[in-house]
Specification:
Elements lengths: L11 H14 L2 H27 L8 H10 L5 H14 L5 H29 L8 H40 L3 H29 L13 H23 L3 H5 L3 H32 L2
Length: about 290
């Protein structure tokens, strides 16, 4: 792991200049717009699947629905959350096995398209050609999508039900309030660890690298998480004071805001990959 953090004759300032140069040469901002399109296509089939799966637990006005939207609102702009809530109400009117199966297949297919686009961009960042057959690339994208979904669901379970889990464990081992306090403190770092693992999995699995090395924490994954959180927060602050999208685009404003947030998310993922690739090149030049 430490080899990625060591630079041979290269300052961090020079490294960041090289990363910025590669970001422009590899058209990261244009490719992030492509990812935003795939993310949008994957979002609503995924919501369809989750709402059908959860059934009446996440029906309109339920506590679970309110909790999900509350935590989602910490990173997603409020206008986009309202759009998602309206969509949830619409897709949860009818539930059934057919809708569940369709939602799962559509979500996996659309999300794997996004993962395929990430793979292509990371291949360019690492200066490697895609030599895997198309079916292997598709299976890799689907597998990575499922892995990320499991990580996200696990993080949501910790956030939403962490208190109840802590109560059960505390009652079983007899630690009482001390354990529950420690759990409340550790919830944030645990969720952060899930995020770092998710980004690290993307950089480890998606590009066509020869004998890649797994690292729990890389500079790229750290940068991606920080950029994603900062841009999400900054976007929310901007919209709070200068929300001109609704005035300009009317009812389409919420959709445009959601697309912009997806775009910023794509930028964070791809820039983190560029940083990792430049660090790999610096390590090979020792």
């Amino acid at each position: 792991m430490l080899s990625m953090w060591r630079l041979s004759g290269l300052s961090w300032g020079e490294l960041l200049k090289r990363v910025w140069q590669q970001v422009n040469e590899d058209d990261i901002f244009g490719r992030a717009a492509q990812l935003a399109y795939y993310f949008l296509l994957a979002l609503f089939p995924l919501l369809l699947f989750l709402i059908t799966l959860l059934g009446y637990w996440a029906s309109a006005g339920s506590e679970l629905r309110d909790q999900l939207l509350s935590y989602l609102a910490t990173v997603v702009p409020s206008s986009a959350v309202e759009l998602i809530n309206v969509t949830l109400n619409e897709v949860s009117k009818e539930k059934g096995g057919g809708k569940l199966s369709f939602g799962l297949l559509a979500a996996l297919w659309a999300a794997s398209n996004g993962m395929g686009a990430i793979s292509q961009t990371l291949n360019i960042a690492y200066d490697v050609e895609e030599t895997r057959p198309w079916w292997k690339v598709r299976l890799t994208s689907v597998g990575l999508t499922v892995l990320l979904a499991l990580l996200i669901i696990s993080a949501l379970v910790i956030v939403l039900y962490g208190g109840k889990i802590a109560d059960l464990i505390a009652a079983a081992i007899g630690l009482g309030g001390t354990f529950k306090l420690a759990w409340q403190i550790l919830q944030g770092p645990i969720v952060l660890a899930f995020l770092l693992t998710a980004f690290g999995s993307i950089y480890y699995i998606a590009p066509n690298l020869t004998n890649p090395k797994w690292r729990w924490i890389t500079p790229g994954s750290l940068l991606a998480v920080v950029l994603w959180l900062l841009t999400s927060l900054g976007f929310r602050v901007y919209l709070h004071f200068f929300d001109s999208y609704s005035a300009t685009y009317g009812s389409l404003g919420a959709l445009i805001i959601l697309m912009l947030w997806f775009y910023l998310t794509g930028v964070a993922i791809l820039v983190g990959g560029e940083l990792n690739s430049e660090l790999e090149r610096a390590a090979k030049q020792k």
